[in-house]
Amino acid sequence: MDNMDQRLIAELRRDGRASVMTLAERTGASRATVRARLARLQQAGEILGFTVITRSDVAEAPVRGLMLIGIEGRGAERIMARLSGMVQVTAVHSTNGRWDLIVELAARSLGELDQVLSQIRTFDGITSSETNLLLSTRRAKSR
Fold it and tell me: The whole model's pTM is what?
């Protein structure tokens, strides 16, 4: 992926419904170039799809957070599988550094989030955790 591909993807992250003409104007490329690059990015698997975020996506679970988890031993796969089965868990990421996993959570209330955190902390193999509430989210802007 070159700089133009990255700019196209950044624009699509900003507005996934942008037309080819709009993308061409924003990137300074021709419509034919934008069309060809988008097709190539999709064929190569760089762009897997387009999505939309609706009000109900956020309204049904307005309390969101990131839980950082430290794991003892080799239980990461087992813990990840268990986490993935929880309704309030929207994503599980393995990572490096101090924490082994980062878990994205979404709940209807602080009380529900508190219950989920308490439940997760009881999993065998979890040695430590830290949770941060997400207060607002801004889309990355194109460069």
Answer: 0.61
